[in-house]
């Protein structure tokens, strides 16, 4: 039975709606920068960005530090909120992160030396910020996650820091008297241990019985402390929460005795519109891709075969890698993820080969190039068909990869996190791709085919995420930060899984979507995780 094709007017309508969503999202995100002077500098080799209003001539500076595997783009909501309210906001990329070319040296399991390096770097950036011509010499610091410990440690050692904001805090550096005027913000959906840590810090001043949402101590003598929960957000969402922005702004105003317009960054809705538009646009664009096969190509697994192929690698991969050395790349955790992708893909490939061999033994009369098998080139007997298929696959793979990297890349790099690689990271993309390519090739092949089972793709991705969870449980100390990364991987699986599915339906072949996803994941891992020499 012939497949029903989507009416062309509907594709045009979706494409136009997606373009409008992208345009509105970009326009609103740029409006957040209206009226701001945004300049770039380096302090040593540390990339720094300064946000301020043109009319500001004498104002406090707020130095804003990102967390583990983050970059200064992640902290833009705080920077623009504070700058639009009359402060001089300064963001930067820590050593080993973002576009900072300097590699961290040390063992994150024994982080004393690394912490000292990061505290010193924060100090150099803060000194630079306080000497800006528009600065009045007063300073505050704000840090998220890993940087919450860094900013608290720095403010304790430098009592001249007027105020500190610790977001998603974990630290043992605070005392009953330092840092001065400390605000703790934790997402309401974050782990209980972070909430307990926030209350513990406030109780250092109160003596016990502190509750969220109440200010203790006094701004007059620098003893003010407050713990707040940002409603409905987790470890990353807390950086975009209206509660977080509002609390940080009010805290700075109280600490410095200032008033302001109260403008709050509201980018989550515009980011959703921008990236939702980019995802939706991929559907009508995918219809332009060349068809590489006459019938859908894939493994065509039965439910039993699918369950075995999905579950066995998910169980074996974390067990086999439990004690494996993972110090072959300078990107922290990226080396483990590379091995996990690689081994998972190889195990899946082995199972697919075994299933294929057993199927051939069970049905020897089936031609090796049957349309339901590995190839469908005989669907069209033209002797030039193999050349046409290869050409179509190359064109589709390049187009899908370019859309993933360029279409999403510039938006990610501008508004979310550092995505465009600096020179020391370029070769790392190729290294990580050695793991992601085998995984995505086998995962796409396993989930597709003319008789593919509904939900096969979702099952495959769920099992992979479950295997990462098992890996973390087996080696919590070494892989703890993967807990933070897993939700981001899930988000990428959903978004780019849709795009690869549309690519597959247009081409009838899993290769283009698989390669596009493999390159995207390798790229994201290589440019995101911190560079560390252990």
Major sheet: size, sense and barrel closure? Answer: 9 strands, mixed
Radius of gyration: 26 Å
The domain tally reads: 2
Mean pLDDT: 91
H-E string: HEEEHEEHEHEEHEEHHHHHHHHHHE
Unreliable residue stretches: 366-381
Tell me the strand percentage band.
5-15%
Count every helix, treating DSSP H or I runs of 4 or more residues as helices: 15
Overall SS class = alpha/beta
Strand order of the largest sheet: 1-2-4-3-6-7-8-10-9
Q: What overall geometry do the principal axes of the alpha carbons give?
A: globular
The helix content is 40-55%
Distance, first to last CA: 59 Å
Q: How many β-strand stretches?
A: 11
Transmembrane segments: 12-29, 270-289, 301-322, 328-355, 388-406, 426-443, 455-474, 480-502, 514-533
Domain Serine aminopeptidase S33: 61-174
Keywords: Hydrolase, Membrane, Transmembrane, Transmembrane helix
GO molecular function: hydrolase activity
Descriptive keywords:
AB_hydrolase_fold, transmembrane helix, 15 helices, 11 strands, 9-stranded mixed β-sheet, 53% helix, two-stranded parallel ribbon, Rossmann fold, 534 residues, alpha/beta, Hydrolase_4
Characterization of the model:
A hairpin with an 8-residue loop joins strand 9 (215-216) and strand 10. With 534 residues, this protein is an alpha/beta fold. It is globular and about 85 Å long. 53% of the residues lie in helices and 11% in strands. It has two domains: 52-264, Rossmann fold; 289-533, no CATH class. It has helices at residues 8-31, 76-84, 112-130, 146-157, 192-206, 242-256, 267-286, 303-320, 334-362, 385-415, 423-447, 456-474, 476-479, 482-507, 511-528; strands spanning 37-43, 46-52, 59-65, 88-92, 104-105, 135-144, 163-167, 182-187, 215-216, 225-230, 532-533. It has a nine-stranded mixed β-sheet with strand order 1-2-4-3-6-7-8-10-9, sandwiched between helices. Strands 5-11 form a two-stranded parallel ribbon. The model is unreliable at 366-381 (pLDDT under 50).
